[in-house]
């Protein structure tokens, strides 16, 4: 199959899916090796993502790809489809998302220990919004649920993996007193 036809097939796959499509699946369907598929995907991303006036973008989410709209046209799409704007996330929701994103998979008790307050409602809301998902259970008494972020979380932040999250600020250790300071304290 020629390159233009393969690229067209990839566009059709991404467009018709609506959800992220793993690169392995694309490779398998088009009978290509993974490096070739990755190169073709990068070429398509360059084609769609470099022109700011294009209405479509291709996002890389971990090892999957998805077609989405250019955010510059989100107002027109909302009005056309009569989509109601979601309420922004609360400070509590942002805190819970940050805790989960940097420490996943985590339990509700872990989140509550860090925040110091109950987070049942916030967790439920974030799961409903498809920003968090259940990732199994911990092998402890009561078998608490484990939570992690979703591909929708990555899409909302416009990042392809959690490694792109900014590093957490480092705690500054108090400087130890020098011997001169101790001698001054003893003479006082």
Question: Can you characterise this structure?
Answer:
The structure is a single chain. It is globular and about 65 Å long. It starts with a helix and ends with a helix. The chain has 9 helices and 6 strands. Helices cover 49% and strands 14% of the residues. The mean pLDDT is 85. α5 (91-103) packs across α7 (120-128). It has 188 residues and is α+β, with helices and mostly antiparallel strands. The chain has 2 domains: 3-79, Orthogonal Bundle (Arc Repressor Mutant, subunit A); 91-164, Winged helix-like DNA-binding domain superfamily/Winged helix DNA-binding domain (Arc Repressor Mutant, subunit A, Orthogonal Bundle), CATH 1.10.10.10. The chain has a 3-stranded antiparallel β-sheet. Strands 4-6-5 form a 3-stranded antiparallel β-sheet.
């Amino acid at each position: 199959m020629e390159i233009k036809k393969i690229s067209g097939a990839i566009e059709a796959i991404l467009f018709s899916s609506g959800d992220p499509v793993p690169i392995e699946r694309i490779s398998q369907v088009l009978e290509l090796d993974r490096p070739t598929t990755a190169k073709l995907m990068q070429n398509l991303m360059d084609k769609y993502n470099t022109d700011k006036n294009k209405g479509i973008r291709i996002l890389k989410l971990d090892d999957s790809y998805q077609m989405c709209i250019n955010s510059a046209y989100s107002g027109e799409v909302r009005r056309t489809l009569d989509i109601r704007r979601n309420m922004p996330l609360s400070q509590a929701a942002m805190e819970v998302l940050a805790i989960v994103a940097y420490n996943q998979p985590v339990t509700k008790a872990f989140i509550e220990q860090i925040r110091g307050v109950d987070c049942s409602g916030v967790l439920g809301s974030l799961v409903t919004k498809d920003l968090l998902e259940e990732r199994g259970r911990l092998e402890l008494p009561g078998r608490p649920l484990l939570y992690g972020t979703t591909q929708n979380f990555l899409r909302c932040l416009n990042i392809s993996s959690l490694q792109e999250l900014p590093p957490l600020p480092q705690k500054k250790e108090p400087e130890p007193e020098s011997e001169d300071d101790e001698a001054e304290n003893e003479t006082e």
